[in-house]
Specification:
With about 120 residues, this protein is mainly α. It has two helices and four strands, in the order ββββαα. It has a two-stranded antiparallel ribbon. The protein has a two-stranded antiparallel ribbon with strand order 3-4.
Length: about 120
Amino acid sequence: MGRQTETGYAGFSVRQGGLSGRTPGRKTRRRREGSSRTAIFVITAAVCILFLVLLSQGVKLKAEIDANEARKADLMTQIEAEESRTDQIEDLREYYESDDYIRQVAGDRLGLVDEGQIVFRSDEE
């Protein structure tokens, strides 16, 4: 059979419980397989949880982006309205500084007329 050495037959050492060798026994192998399966399950569960958390954060961020886009569009509309209003105010300021406006106000409020104009008055005044 095998050659006997100090450690026993064919490289196996003798212990109190029996022979222990290079390959683990059935119980040890089952423990290792069970612990590796548990580890794989825990890692898979952790990855799934992480994925779900990131997915929910992505959904929240998408909703926030959509809300910000709507707000941006509203603000752009307001900016256009204010620019239009600014143009109208600028046109009105230029009209108020013109000679035509000054003549109109002088005639309406003060009753002044230019040289050579004929003034008609009604009896009702």
